[in-house]
């Protein structure tokens, strides 16, 4: 069908536009970090497994951290005990106030007691190299703009590979990777660094307190107030591993925020993403159609195009995480699952309005 071929060509070009630049956090040569008083804030709900890892990483940093604050958000496991064992400041929250989501409320309360000049909000599943905080401080001092990092995604179990398209869309959704766009239209929740006075000036997380996708919406709020931001991929210095336990956790995790987050993405970026996804679907569909009709000359051409798409997808994916090349070679399988999860996310969020995360209804 001519429509599919046009979609393939246009989608191929859009893929270049969406993922043209993939900047990674790295040390600036001959840069000396200034003495910045940093408060690290970790919102934690049922994080007894992850907290020992991130707190151990923070204790090993080459840069002297002013204080580490863990906010226990009504955990039902040993999270409070882990915090006490590491001897860092612990804030234990009461019931969630009306109108607030869990993570924004935890971050807001952590910031209230922080005494540093600069705040770094870290998710508990983030892992840091020994120089990660120093690299953040060096990059931050270049312009003192809010700084956000999307960690490199460590994937090991087969079900974890299904995160590939979610992570890629998260990258381009902020416009960080789009050719010709200098503005950033969102933040990445796992790592967010901001001057405390700027954070307070705009009310902290108050403006996005009801948002599940608080990172994208806080970024939008800053853009509205003409605040520039810097965004980078974490590379090998800042990593995380999402939903390692089961596909159920992955389904619950992406469902809780992806449909809501897509609404926060600029409409024109969503249109470009939709066309790119349509082109990824169109290639294997045309291969099947030509095979069924016995048009083998076209099938050879489409096979070549398919390989080009897979290689370009691998170029992007290897910057985002530890995705093996066979995931990109068999991308239609992962794409179908992505589309099914996305449909489920929309249904759960807007129709039945019943999504949960870590035992709490959203």
Question: What are the main properties of this structure?
Answer:
362 residues; 2 domains; globular; Spore Coat Polysaccharide Biosynthesis Protein SpsA, Chain A; three-stranded mixed β-sheet; alpha/beta; seven-stranded mixed β-sheet
CATH superfamily of the largest domain: Spore Coat Polysaccharide Biosynthesis Protein SpsA, Chain A
How many domains comprise the coordinates?
2
CATH architecture annotation of the largest domain? Alpha-Beta Complex
Order of strands across the main sheet: 3-2-1-4-8-6-9
Radius of gyration: 21 Å
Structure notes:
- The chain is of the alpha/beta class.
- It has 2 domains: 2-19 and 266-361, no CATH class; 38-245, Alpha-Beta Complex (Spore Coat Polysaccharide Biosynthesis Protein SpsA, Chain A), CATH 3.90.550.
- It is 49% helix and 13% strand.
- The chain contains 13 helices and 12 strands.
- It has helices spanning 2-18, 51-59, 79-85, 102-113, 132-141, 164-173, 196-201, 214-224, 247-264, 267-293, 296-320, 325-329, 331-351, and strands at 38-44, 67-72, 89-92, 118-122, 126-128, 147-150, 152-153, 191-195, 230-233, 238-240, 356-357, 360-361.
- A 7-stranded mixed beta sheet has the order 3-2-1-4-8-6-9, with helices on both faces. It has a 3-stranded mixed beta sheet with strand order 5-10-7.
- Helix 1 (2-18) packs across helix 10 and helix 9 packs across helix 13 (331-351).
- The protein is globular and about 70 Å long.
- The chain starts with a helix and ends with a strand.
- The mean pLDDT is 90.
């Amino acid at each position: 069908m001519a429509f599919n071929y046009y979609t393939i060509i246009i989608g191929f070009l859009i893929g270049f536009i969406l993922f043209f630049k993939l900047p990674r956090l790295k040390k600036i040569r001959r840069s000396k970090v200034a003495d910045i008083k940093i408060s690290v804030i970790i919102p934690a709900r049922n994080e007894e497994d992850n907290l020992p890892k991130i707190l151990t990483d923070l204790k090993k940093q080459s840069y002297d951290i002013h204080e580490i604050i863990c906010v226990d958000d009504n955990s039902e496991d040993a999270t409070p005990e882990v915090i006490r064992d590491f001897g860092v400041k612990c804030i234990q929250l009461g019931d969630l106030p009306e109108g607030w989501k869990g993570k924004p409320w935890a971050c807001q309360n952590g910031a209230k007691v922080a005494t540093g000049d600069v705040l770094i909000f870290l998710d508990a599943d983030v892992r840091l190299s020994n120089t990660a905080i120093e690299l953040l401080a060096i990059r931050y001092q270049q312009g003192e703009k809010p700084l956000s990092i999307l960690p490199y995604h460590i994937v090991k179990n087969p079900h974890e590979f299904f995160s590939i398209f979610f992570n890629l869309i998260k990258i381009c959704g902020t416009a960080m990777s789009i050719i010709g766009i200098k503005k950033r239209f969102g933040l990445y929740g796992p790592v967010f660094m901001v001057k405390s006075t700027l954070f307070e000036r705009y009310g902290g997380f108050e403006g996005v307190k009801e948002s599940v996708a608080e990172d994208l919406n806080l970024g939008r709020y800053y853009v509205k107030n003409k605040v520039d931001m810097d965004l980078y991929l974490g590379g090998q210095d800042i990593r995380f591993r999402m939903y390692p336990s089961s596909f159920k956790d992955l389904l619950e995790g992406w469902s809780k925020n992806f449909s809501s987050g897509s609404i926060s993405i600029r409409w024109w970026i969503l249109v470009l993403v939709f066309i790119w996804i349509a082109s990824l679907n169109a290639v294997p569909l045309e291969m099947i159609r030509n095979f069924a009709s016995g048009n083998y000359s076209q099938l050879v051409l489409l096979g070549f195009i398919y390989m080009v798409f897979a290689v370009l997808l691998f170029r992007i994916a290897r910057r985002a995480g530890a995705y093996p090349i066979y995931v990109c070679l068999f991308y239609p399988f992962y794409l179908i699952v992505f589309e099914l999860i996305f449909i489920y996310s929309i249904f759960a969020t807007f129709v039945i309005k019943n999504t949960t995360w870590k035992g709490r209804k959203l």
